[in-house]
Backbone:
C-alpha cells in the first residue's frame, strides 16, 4: 500500500516527475551509448586484423610496427631484406607469409605493395575475408585495387587511371607508370579502406629509374622494357605470417627476434593491439567519465526537485505522522519515491538506447565501420542501471533527512 | 477524561490548544510533568513507541487538508491501519470496514475509489471521520473540524460525528474556539481555566 501511495504521489506530481525521469533517462541512454560505442570501438579495433599470427618488421617498437604495418600510421625505420624474408618464409612452421611494401602514396592515401595472397590471408572482424565490390583483384603489373574510402573520397571507379606519388605528401610523382584501378574493395572498417593496393613487383617497377629517393635525371625506361625486367624486390617493409600450429608462434617469434643476420622484430597482433589500446584508451575513459558526470547531474537535479517539493508536502507528512507514522517512515517514503523515479528513468534510458541503436546502427556501420551489436543488456549494463537506482536512493537521502527533521519538528501540526 | 466521554476544549487561537493536542498525541514531550493516556505515561515511551501508541489509540481529524490528495478515499480511510496492527486486526476486513463507515457517514460507495482531491470539503471531512474511526481507536481528537464548513453543514457534520463516536464507544476530544456546540458535549473545558500560555519571544 505504501508503494501504491508512493506511485500515486509521483503520478500526482506528473509534470516535475516526468521532467526528472526524462533527464535521468537521457543521461542513462548517453552513458550506456558511450559504453556501447566504447566496447564497439574496442572490438572493431581488435578486429582490425585477425587470422595473422605474427607481424614481422625491422627492429623497432611493437606498437610502432603495428601502427605502420596495419594502421598505415607513421613510417618504418628500416626494411627487411629479401633474403631474411625468404629465410622466414622457408621455415617449416610457417604456413603462409604475405609481404608488405610501403612508402609511396596516392593523394592522402598510402600505397601498399603486396602479393595476391594478401587478399586471401588478410582477415578482419573474426575471420572475415576481403571482398571485391566492383572489378577484379590485381591481374596486371600496373593494376591497383583501392579501398572503399579511397574510391568514395576521390570518386574513382574501375578502369580509372591513377598516378602514384613517391614518398608521402610528396610532389614527385611516378608519372611515367600510371596504374589502372582494377577493383574496389568492400567497406571493412579497417585501414584497408584507406589503402591503394598494388603488387610488390609494381612497387619495384615504378622505382626502376629512381635511386636513393630521387629520379635519375633524363632516364625513363619505357613500360614495355620494365615488363621484361626482373622485378624481384630487394627489401620489403613488413610481413604477415600465419603458423602451421599456433603453438609454435612463440618459438618462431623468439627465433625471428634473435635472427643473427639482421635486427628483426616479430609481434603478436593481439598483444600489440592491447598495448596500443592502452594508449588510446585514455580518451575513452575520459569520455566515459564525462557521461557518468551527466548521470550525476541528472540525479542532483532530482535531488533539487525533491528539496523544492518538501515545503508543499509538509501537510502530507503531518497526516502520516498523525496516523502514527514514524519520521523514519517518511524518510523511507521519500527514498522509495526517488528510487522509483530513478528506476523508471533508467528503464526508459535503456529503451531510448535500443531505439537509437535500431535507427543509427546501419548508418554507423557504413560511415565508420563500427558495428554496434543490438543484444540483451550485458551484466555490466545491468550493474550500471542498478547503480543509477542506488545512486538515486543515496542522493535522495539528503532531502529525505531534511523531511525527517521537518516532520520531527512539525509533528501533526504544520508550523508555518 | 473518562471512557466514551465527549469533551469540548474551548480556547482562542494562540491559547495553547494545538500544543496541548501535540502533547496528548505525543509528538512533543512536556518540559515538566507528565501526560498519561489510557494509563500509559507517554514520556516513558521511546519516540517510535509514542508514534506507534498514537496510531493505535488516536483517531485524528484536522481542521482541513485531512487527506492525502493523491490517494483514493479507501486508501485514506485505511491509512492509519498501516501503522497500527491492533487497530487493523480490530477492523477485520479493511475494505468492508471502510465501506461500512462510508455508508454510516452517508458517503456514496462509488466515492471509495475516487481520488481524495476530487471530493468536496464536506465530503473530505466525513472521510476524515471515517479514517479517525476505523479500527475503533479509544480516543478521537478533532481539531476544529467544522471551521471549514458552513453553518448548516457544521450541525449535520457534528450529528454524524456524535452518532459514530457513540456507536464506536470512543471518547471524543474536540478543540474549538466556538462555544455554540457546548451543550452537545458531556463536558466543556476552557483552556484559559487550565493553562496559562506563556509565549517566549523567539
Residues:
Amino acid at each position: 500500500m505504501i508503494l501504491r501511495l508512493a506511485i500515486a504521489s509521483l503520478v500526482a506530481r506528473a509534470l516535475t516527475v516526468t521532467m526528472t525521469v526524462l533527464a535521468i533517462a537521457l543521461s542513462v541512454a548517453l552513458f550506456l551509448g558511450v559504453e556501447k560505442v566504447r566496447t564497439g570501438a574496442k572490438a572493431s579495433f581488435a578486429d582490425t586484423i585477425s587470422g595473422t599470427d605474427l607481424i614481422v618488421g625491422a627492429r623497432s617498437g611493437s606498437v610502432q610496427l603495428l601502427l605502420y604495418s596495419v594502421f598505415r600510421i607513421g613510417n618504418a625505420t628500416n626494411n627487411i631484406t629479401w633474403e631474411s624474408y625468404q629465410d622466414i618464409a622457408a621455415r617449416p612452421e610457417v604456413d603462409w607469409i604475405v609481404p608488405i611494401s610501403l612508402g609511396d602514396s596516392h593523394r592522402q592515401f598510402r600505397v601498399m605493395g603486396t602479393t595476391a595472397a594478401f587478399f586471401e590471408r588478410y582477415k578482419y572482424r573474426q575471420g572475415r575475408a576481403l571482398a571485391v565490390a566492383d572489378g577484379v583483384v590485381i591481374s596486371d603489373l600496373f593494376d591497383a585495387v583501392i579501398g572503399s574510402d579511397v574510391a568514395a573520397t576521390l570518386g574513382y571507379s574501375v578502369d580509372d587511371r591513377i598516378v602514384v606519388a613517391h614518398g608521402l605528401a610528396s610532389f614527385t610523382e611516378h608519372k611515367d607508370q600510371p596504374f589502372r584501378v582494377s577493383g574496389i574493395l568492400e567497406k571493412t572498417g579497417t585501414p584497408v579502406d584507406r589503402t591503394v593496393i598494388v603488387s610488390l613487383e609494381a612497387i619495384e617497377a615504378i622505382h626502376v629509374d629512381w635511386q636513393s629517393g630521387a629520379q635519375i635525371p633524363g632516364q625513363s625506361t619505357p613500360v614495355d622494357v620494365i615488363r621484361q625486367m626482373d622485378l624481384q624486390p630487394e627489401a620489403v617493409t613488413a610481413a604477415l605470417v600465419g603458423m602451421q600450429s599456433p603453438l609454435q608462434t612463440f618459438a618462431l617469434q623468439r627465433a625471428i627476434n634473435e635472427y643473427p643476420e639482421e635486427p628483426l622484430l616479430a609481434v603478436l597482433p593481439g598483444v600489440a593491439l592491447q598495448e596500443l589500446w592502452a594508449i588510446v584508451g585514455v580518451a575513452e575513459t575520459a569520455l566515459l567519465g564525462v557521461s557518468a558526470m551527466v548521470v550525476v547531474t541528472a540525479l542532483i537535479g532530482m535531488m533539487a526537485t525533491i528539496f523544492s517539493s518538501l515545503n508543499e508536502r509538509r501537510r502530507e507528512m503531518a497526516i502520516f505522522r498523525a496516523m502514527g507514522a514514524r519520521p523514519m517512515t517518511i524518510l523511507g517514503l521519500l527514498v522509495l519515491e526517488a528510487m522509483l523515479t530513478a528506476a523508471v528513468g533508467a528503464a526508459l534510458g535503456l529503451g531510448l538506447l535500443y531505439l537509437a541503436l535500431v535507427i543509427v546502427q546501419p548508418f554507423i556501420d557504413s560511415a565508420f565501420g563500427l558495428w554496434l551489436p543490438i543484444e540483451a543488456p550485458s551484466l555490466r549494463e545491468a550493474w550500471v542501471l542498478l547503480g543509477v537506482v542506488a545512486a538515486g536512493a543515496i542522493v535522495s537521502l539528503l532531502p529525505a533527512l531534511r523531511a525527517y527533521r521537518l516532520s520531527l519538528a512539525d509533528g501533526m501540526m504544520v508550523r508555518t | 477524561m473518562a471512557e466514551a466521554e465527549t469533551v469540548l476544549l474551548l480556547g482562542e487561537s494562540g491559547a495553547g490548544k494545538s500544543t496541548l493536542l501535540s502533547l496528548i498525541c505525543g509528538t512533543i514531550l512536556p518540559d515538566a510533568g507528565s501526560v498519561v493516556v489510557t494509563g500509559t505515561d507517554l514520556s516513558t515511551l521511546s519516540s517510535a513507541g509514542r508514534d506507534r501508541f498514537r496510531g493505535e489509540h488516536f483517531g485524528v481529524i484536522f481542521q482541513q487538508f485531512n487527506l492525502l490528495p493523491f490517494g483514493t478515499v479507501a486508501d485514506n480511510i485505511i491509512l492509519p491501519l498501516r501503522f497500527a496492527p491492533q487497530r487493523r486486526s480490530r477492523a477485520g476486513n479493511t475494505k468492508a470496514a471502510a465501506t461500512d463507515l462510508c455508508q454510516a457517514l452517508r458517503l456514496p460507495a462509488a466515492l471509495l475509489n475516487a481520488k481524495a482531491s476530487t471530493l468536496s470539503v464536506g465530503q473530505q471531512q466525513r472521510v476524515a471521520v471515517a479514517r479517525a474511526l476505523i479500527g475503533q481507536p479509544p480516543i478521537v481528537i478533532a481539531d476544529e473540524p467544522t471551521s471549514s464548513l458552513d453553518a448548516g453543514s457544521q450541525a449535520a457534520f457534528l450529528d454524524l460525528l456524535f452518532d459514530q463516536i457513540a456507536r464506536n464507544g470512543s471518547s471524543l476530544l474536540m478543540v474549538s474556539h466556538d462555544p455554540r456546540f457546548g451543550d452537545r458535549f458531556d463536558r466543556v473545558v476552557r483552556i484559559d481555566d487550565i493553562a496559562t500560555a506563556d509565549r517566549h519571544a523567539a
About this structure: Chain B is about 40% helix and 15% strand. The CA atoms of residues 61 and 142 of chain B lie 5 Å apart. Chain B has a mean pLDDT of 80.
